[in-house]
Each structure stands twice: as C-alpha cells, then as structure tokens.
Design goal:
The chain has one domain. It is about 75% helix and about 0% strand. The chain is built from 14 helices and no strands.
Length: about 270
C-alpha cells in the first residue's frame, strides 16, 4: 500500500471514529448537548427526543464512510464537524473549544481534497484509496488542511491548561496518580501550544508521531477519570491520533523524489 492509500485509510478511520463516538453521546442523551440546542432557542422537550436521532445518523455516517466514502458525504461531515465545533463558542464555552476540535473537521476536509484526484466520480461515486490523477496542488492542499487541524487541536487544548487552568485537566491527571498543580498545568499547556506552532512551521515525522502518541494517551484520561461511557470521548477524538499519521503518509510522497511516481500510484 502506497503512502497516499495509507493516508486515505487513516482519514477514513478518523472520520468513522469521530462520528461513531459523537453519535454514541446522542444515543446516550448527553446533558452537555442541551446548551447547543439553547443557542437556537430549542426547548428541552424537543432536545431530549431528538438527541438519539442525531446520534443514530452520526453513527450511520461513520459506518458508511468506511465502506463508501464519497464527496457528498465528506462535504457534509466537514460541515457538520465545523458547525458542531462552532456551537461551543456560540454557547459561551469559548473559542478554544472550537480550535480543540481541529482533529474532527480536518480529516473529512483533507479526504475531500484528496478526492479531487478522481475527477470523474461526481458527488456520489466512491473515493478510491489510490492516488488517481494526484497533483502537487492536491497533495499540498490536503497536507495543509491536516497541519492546520493538528495545530488547532494542540493549541486549543493547550489553552485549556495555559490560560484557563481547567479543573477537568487536574482530575484527568489525578486519575493516574499525578497531582498536577496550576503552575504545572500551565507548563503542559504551553508545551502543547508550542507543539502546535511547530506543526505549522515544519513537517517533522518524530514530532507528528509524538503528537499522535501524546493525544492517544492523554485522551484516554477521559474514561479513567470518569465513567466507562467516557470512552466515547476518546473515540470521538480519533482524528487527534490518525490525522498526524495520515500527514506522515502524505509527506512520505515527497521523501523519495526519485520514486515519487511510484509512490503516488501504488
């Protein structure tokens, strides 16, 4: 499997995890969703029964993207992820919440960009996990979407500690026996922010691997600090783990210029 095909599959998995994880919260009727309904003045008696409907649709789309990714689906996924991320500042939760969801909206948008290598498939044809008529412009677009999304999620999450010193993060570290005081939480937050800036500045495989490992482990603190249901917080953030790996795969297309044509079409 060539690097473009590897990136394709990693992004499909990221999209699937995000929508299945988010959809599970709808089926669970998460109380934390109520402020998002209130943004539009929707009363609770309508919100509660519609949450499972939204959740079921999300899960269905997460399954479909694994078997039949297409441009219409990816466009909707990208829109839905941006929209739901924007609901957080609209509900007075702050803009850092929007940026922290960069791992949600970057994968479908990057995969949509890669689909441009298949001009004849239309909106509903399956986007194939091969390079097709890949160009430098298409590759560059997908790579920058991922870099911006990864940087956003790191900077957004880092701001939770560096600027807001969220008690939730203290509880997360306490779940594994680490007593993190506000000063240390700020240090960790600033480290994440600097990592986000570094991702924008340079494509570094060791850095991206470190980001993928760091996010995989730290997001696991959700279920460790909460309940078993909180494992879906970890699942929903699948883009945080798979997007850096997809970016590594796309960067590998340029790592061996002499075999670039082979790398594109394998």
């Amino acid at each position: 499997m060539g690097p473009v095909a590897s990136a394709h599959w990693l992004l499909r998995i990221a999209c699937a995890w995000c929508f299945v994880g988010h959809g599970a919260w709808g089926l669970y009727q998460k109380p934390g969703w109520l402020p998002f309904y209130q943004v539009f003045g929707i009363p609770e008696w309508i919100a509660w029964p519609t949450m499972p409907v939204v959740g079921a649709v999300d899960i269905a789309l997460g399954v479909i993207v694994l078997f039949h990714p297409n441009r219409a689906l990816l466009l909707w996924m990208g829109f839905w992820c941006v929209f739901t991320a924007l609901l957080r500042p609209m509900a007075d939760m702050g803009w850092w919440e929007f940026f922290e969801r960069g791992g949600n909206y970057a994968p479908p948008l990057a995969l949509l960009a890669l689909s441009l290598a298949h001009p004849g498939i239309g909106w509903w044809g399956a986007v194939r996990p091969v390079a097709g008529e890949m160009t430098d412009r298409i590759l560059s677009s997908a790579r920058w979407i991922l870099r911006i999304g990864i940087a956003a999620l790191l900077i957004g999450h880092g701001a939770f500690g560096a600027f807001e010193v969220r008690p939730m993060l203290v509880d997360h570290w306490a779940s594994i026996g680490l007593a993190i005081d506000p000063a240390m939480l700020r240090v960790v937050g600033w480290a994440e922010i600097l990592a986000g800036v570094a991702v924008l500045a340079v494509e570094s495989t060791p850095l991206l691997i470190a980001v993928a490992v760091w996010k995989t482990l730290t997001e696991l603190l959700y279920p460790l600090a909460g309940s078993a249901m909180d494992v879906f917080e970890w699942v929903e953030r699948g883009g945080d783990y798979f997007a850096p790996l997809a970016l590594i795969s796309l960067a590998a297309v340029y790592a061996q210029p002499r075999s670039r044509a082979t790398a594109l079409h394998v």
